[in-house]
Amino acid sequence: MALTKTKRRNRIKSRVKKVISGTAERPRLSVFRSNKQIYAQLVDDVNATTLVAAGSTEKEIVSEEGNKSEKAAMVGKLIAKKAKDAGFEKVVFDRSGYLYHGRVKQLADAAREGGLKF
């Protein structure tokens, strides 16, 4: 029997989580993508805490015009700005089992433009 999309993504995610881990010095930039929204957060896996978070549901992004890809780029810039303000420059990118394409790629490219290194 074929895997569903979520089961397939969870398998990929568990394979990646074995290798990728965020620390207090170099947190993990985790991406979650739903059908309508996209969220990103910096996670310290050692202490199991979220350090910085941003999403397309934030006031400054909701008020802007644009399609989902453009909003993903805005989230990337916002997470980069928040991370820089919190003192983080280097991160480990975790695409959470999604293909590096479309909105996930837009978010990653915008985060790089905003000054994050990964």
Automatic annotation (TrEMBL):
GO terms for biological process: translation. It holds the Pfam family Ribosomal_L18p. Coiled coil: none annotated. Keywords: Ribonucleoprotein, Ribosomal protein, RNA-binding, rRNA-binding. SUPFAM superfamilies: Translational machinery components. Part of the 50S ribosomal subunit; part of the 5S rRNA/L5/L18/L25 subcomplex. Contacts the 5S and 23S rRNAs. HAMAP family: Ribosomal_uL18_B. This is Large ribosomal subunit protein uL18. The lineage of its organism: Bacteria, Pseudomonadati, Bacteroidota, Bacteroidia, Marinilabiliales.
